Amino acid sequence: MQIYWTKINKIIEETPEVKTYLLDCPEDFTWEEGAHTHLALEGFNAEDKPNRSLIRHMSISTLPYENSIGITTRIREQCSEYKAILRNLEVGSELAIFKTHSNVPLKREDKNVYLLSSGVGLATFRPLVLDYFERADNVNKIHSLNIDSSKNFLFKNVFESAPDKKFTSQFVDNRKDYYEEVRNLATDKEGLFYIVGSDEFLVQNIELLREQGINLDQIMLDKHEQTLSKFLSMDAPV
Question: Which domain of life is it from (predicted)?
Fold first, then answer.
C-alpha cells in the first residue's frame, strides 16, 4: 500500500459547519470522479499498528484538473477526536492519503442520471457533475436532488440548474418534500439512481425506489463490493 504525504494549501469555510480542505497533489497521484480516499492525520502510523481513530474514509470533492485534492466534511461543535484535530489544522499542515478508489464513476449508457444526496454527501457528486459538464457523451441529462435541514446548501455555484447543459439541481430542507420528489423521479423506469448519505438514508431510498419498480442494477452506491449486498439485497421489496 502506498501512502502519500501531502499538505493543506487552502481551507474553505463552505458553511458554518462545513469545511473543504484543499491538499497538494503528490506527483504521481491521480483519481477519477466519484473517488474516495483514506485521510489520515499525522501520527496515525507512529506505532506498530495504525491508529484507526486518526483515519477516516472521505470522498474527494474535486477533479484532477483543479490541481488540488478536495476533502469536504461537516465538523459540528460536538465532534469526534478526529474531527476536532482536523478543525484545528492550518494551511501547511501534513496529512496522509491512501487506498483511493471510485465506486461511483459516471455511467455513460445513454440514460438519465439522478443524483440523490443528503447534506455533505453532495461532495461525492460535485466531480460527477463537473465531469459531465466537460464531456456530456452518452448521458441524456442529470438531475441532482439534495436534502439538508440546515438549509446551508453546498456548492451552489456548481449545483445550479443549466438547461442548456441538460442539468437540473434541486435543494429541499425536509424529508416529506424530498421523498415526494424521489417518487416523481422514479417514474423514469430506465434512469440510473446514485445515492450518497448515511446508511439509514441509503436504505430508505433503496426501499422507495424498489417500491416504484426501479431495478437493483439501476442503483449506484458509494460502497465497496463486499458491503453492497447488505444494501442491495434481493429480499428488498419490489
Answer: Bacteria
Helix, strand or coil for residue 126? Answer: helix
Closest CA relative to residue 205, chosen from 217, 191, 189, 221: 221
pTM: 0.90
**Res. 113 pLDDT band, cuts 50 70 90:** very high
Provide the pLDDT confidence category of residue 50 given band limits of 50, 70 and 90.
confident
Its domain, for residue 126, covers 111-231
The rounded distance, in Å, linking the Cα atoms of 217 and 203 is 15
Residue 116 shares a structural domain with residue 202: yes
Q: Residue 80 maps to which CATH number?
A: 2.40.30.10
> Is 237 part of a structural domain of the chain?
no
Residue 23 lies in a domain: yes
| Beta strands 219-221; 4-15: pairing state | unpaired
Q: Is residue 90 part of a domain?
A: yes
Cα 131 to Cα 34: distance, rounded to the nearest angstrom: 10
pLDDT tens-digit map of 127-180: 999 999 999 999 999 999 999 988 888 999 999 999 999 999 999 999 999 999
Strand order, beta sheet including 94-102: 55-59, 35-41, 94-102, 4-15, 18-23, 69-74
